[in-house]
């Protein structure tokens, strides 16, 4: 059984992330979506909120687990008994960074391979950062995120405006 991890911050999850999840899902027997609790970043959503949104938007897909994690990705891969790390690539700048990370991960854990999937062309420009910026200024994010994510994003933005 081939188990893979698709790690990310998913702050918030976008259609670009879902594109990689759905395509990965067809390739592996089990997909673990690892929701990174990155202390170096100041996320808009808590790791629990991000995991809950991911669970909601992937509820119709079987053999997918949403699992929060922190620390080294290779340690998480060992804990999950994963053989593959899946990473999405939007542009050449993503490739340079992801190549360096995959080589480092392979050095730390030689049994774990990294598989790169290029993002579908309609999502190649899309990032969570862009979605948050649009939302901050009251723009329409419905074409970038699922409806349940849009609702949570608008709630979060309204709460921030009240502060």
Core attributes:
about 160 residues; alpha/beta; 5 strands
Please tell me about this protein's structure.
With 163 residues, this protein is an alpha/beta fold. The chain has a single domain (3-162), classed as HUPs (Rossmann fold, 3-Layer(aba) Sandwich), CATH 3.40.50. It contains 6 helices and 5 strands; from the N terminus they run E-H-E-H-E-H-E-H-E-H-H. It has helices at residues 15-25, 47-57, 73-79, 92-108, 128-136, 147-162, and strands at 3-8, 30-36, 64-69, 84-89, 113-118. The chain has a 5-stranded parallel sheet with strand order 3-2-1-4-5, with helices on both faces. Helix 2 links the parallel strand 2 (30-36) and strand 3. The termini are far apart. The mean pLDDT is 93. It catalyses: (R)-4'-phosphopantetheine + ATP + H(+) = 3'-dephospho-CoA + diphosphate. Keywords: ATP-binding, Coenzyme A biosynthesis, Cytoplasm, Magnesium, Nucleotide-binding, Nucleotidyltransferase, Transferase. Its EC number is 2.7.7.3. Substrate binds at residues 9, 41, 73, 87. InterPro entries: Cyt_trans-like, PPAT, Rossmann-like_a/b/a_fold.
CATH topology: Rossmann fold
CATH superfamily: HUPs
Measured distance between first and last alpha carbons: 49 Å
Total helical segments: 6
Q: Provide the spatial order of strands within the biggest beta sheet.
A: 3-2-1-4-5
Biggest β-sheet, characterized?
5 strands, parallel
User: How many strand elements?
Assistant: 5
As a whole number of angstroms, the C-alpha radius of gyration is 16 Å
Are there runs of 5+ residues with pLDDT below 50, and where?
none
């Amino acid at each position: 059984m081939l188990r893979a991890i698709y790690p990310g911050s998913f702050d918030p999850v976008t259609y670009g992330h879902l594109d990689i999840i759905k395509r990965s899902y067809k390739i592996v027997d089990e997909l673990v979506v690892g929701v990174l609790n990155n202390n170096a970043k100041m996320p808009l959503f808590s790791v629990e909120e991000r995991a809950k949104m991911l669970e909601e938007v992937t509820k119709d897909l079987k053999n997918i687990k949403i699992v929060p994690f922190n620390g080294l990705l290779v340690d998480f891969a060992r804990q999950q008994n994963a053989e593959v790390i899946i990473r999405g690539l939007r542009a050449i700048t993503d490739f340079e960074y992801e190549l360096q990370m995959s080589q480092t991960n392979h050095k730390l854990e030689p049994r774990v391979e990294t598989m790169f999937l290029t993002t579908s062309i309609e999502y190649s420009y899309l990032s969570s950062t862009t979605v948050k910026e649009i939302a901050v200024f009251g723009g329409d994010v419905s074409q970038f995120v699922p409806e349940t994510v849009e609702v949570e994003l608008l709630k979060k933005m309204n709460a921030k405006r009240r502060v």
